[in-house]
Design brief:
This is AMP-binding protein. The protein has 409 residues and is an alpha/beta fold. It is 29% helix and 24% strand.
């Protein structure tokens, strides 16, 4: 069996119908059972949100905003539908600290699908080196492995010598953790003349370029990467096709222009915004702050869901100019005022160590339009800026709304 379940290879139209049928029910559930969405979506009729276009009218809740929301209403900012007790098996702290609940359901984070695509199977012994201390990564991988039928050794982080000793004794075939810690273990094993039994790995938390993948494959370890967050769980995962990351079956992913909630065209880089169908922590239009883009077509592996390119950087490009913060949302607001602008990016440099803003616009060069844009930029940011026109399609497709190229040398 090459698939975790039949949903992975169903007709894409069937999947879309299923997601959009679930969407109004999830929004109604979030409104009825969480204080945050009861307020945020007070004027929204859940029954009317049956298309991606309708979903795009709802506000984006960004991870960068969640800390302040949680501080105002501990522990979860009013976004959790469960409290302490049997329905909430664990609570974790991520950097910030942000707090996330873990429900009691099997495979709560839905990462089992990704481990299965990476070759993990029932009866495997998995050496899990993600942290079990305060943060959820260790539990995310362990619960996923258990859902497949694997046994887990809770290695956690550090104590390299003791971990190697256990790996020699127990001979795990699978590894979960970061690429860098796997390299440390392998290097230490080489130094000690130890041969490990690993043949498969699921990696996350760091970049995993093809050069590292190929180096591990040369050692007989077939490694795959996944994209998950402590708020959402699994978002997308790598398959044997090695062409982008396939989106999970239980999330609805949008790519939006940074600083806005506006979806971009397939192929254009933007912020990953996710709606989850988790009943315990029902996040609607959650802005991850990560950049990616939708890949065209279906994966050669046979999975028919949409794919993203993978992690392509951070969407939060807020910068400080002459002591004032400038946000991507402000630049988006300027662009919306002037329909002549196809795309734009604010370039910040400092010739002579003096901050300068230049709004590069894909639009026809026009003196009157230039003056109007300069006025909008000043009104929106409270800072004086310049405008430069360029031809359509010449701005890089990298998701950047603000490009800070200042040098202080």
């Amino acid at each position: 069996m090459n698939f975790f379940d039949a949903r992975e290879h169903r007709d894409p139209a069937e999947r879309e119908r299923d997601l959009l049928a679930r969407l109004p029910r999830q929004i109604a559930h979030a409104k009825a059972n969480t204080a945050a969405f009861a307020g945020l979506l007070a004027r929204v009729d859940p029954a009317s949100i049956t298309t991606r276009e309708a979903l795009a009218t709802l506000p984006v809740i960004r991870k960068s905003e969640l800390l302040d929301l949680q501080k105002a209403a501990r522990p979860f900012g009013g976004f959790s539908a469960v409290g302490w007790g049997a329905a909430c098996a664990r609570v974790f702290a991520s950097p910030g600290p942000l707090y996330e609940p873990e429900g009691a359901r099997e495979n709560y984070w839905r990462v089992a699908r990704a481990l299965f695509a990476a070759g993990f199977r029932e009866g495997d012994l998995v050496h899990n080196t993600f942290s079990y201390h305060m943060t959820p990564a260790g539990s995310i991988m362990e619960t996923a492995a258990h859902a497949i039928g694997c046994t887990v050794f809770p290695g956690g982080v550090g104590q390299t010598e003791q971990q190697l000793e256990a790996m020699v004794d127990l001979k795990p075939v699978a590894y979960t953790g970061t690429p860098s810690f796997l390299r440390i273990l392998l290097d230490k094993a080489d130094e000690a003349g130890i041969t490990l039994n690993l043949s498969k790995a699921f990696l996350s938390g760091e970049a995993f370029p093809p050069s590292q993948r190929d180096a591990l494959a040369a050692r007989g370890i077939h490694a795959y990467q996944g994209y998950a967050t402590a708020d959402i769980g699994l978002i997308a995962y790598e398959t044997p096709a090695r062409e982008g990351l396939v989106i999970d079956e239980d999330v609805l992913v949008e790519i939006v222009r940074p600083g806005t909630g506006d979806p971009v065209a397939d192929g254009e880089v933007g912020e990953v915004v996710v709606t989850t169908f988790n009943p315990d922590y029902p996040l609607i239009r959650f802005g991850t702050g990560d950049l990616s883009a939708i890949l065209p077509g279906a994966s050669p592996c046979g999975r028919t869901n949409r794919r993203i390119k993978g992690w392509m950087g951070r969407a939060d490009q807020t910068t400080k100019v002459k002591g004032m913060f400038v946000h991507p949302g402000q630049i988006a607001a300027v662009v919306k005022r002037h329909p002549e602008i196809a795309r734009a990016r604010l370039v910040v440099d400092n010739p002579g160590l003096t901050d300068r803003m230049t709004l590069c616009c894909e639009a026809a060069d026009d003196a009157a339009l230039r003056e109007q844009i300069v006025a909008s930029l000043r009104e929106t940011t409270k800072l004086r800026g310049e405008v430069a026109f360029c031809a359509a399609g010449t701005l890089p497709n990298d998701g950047k709304v603000i490009d800070d190229i200042r040098s202080y040398e």
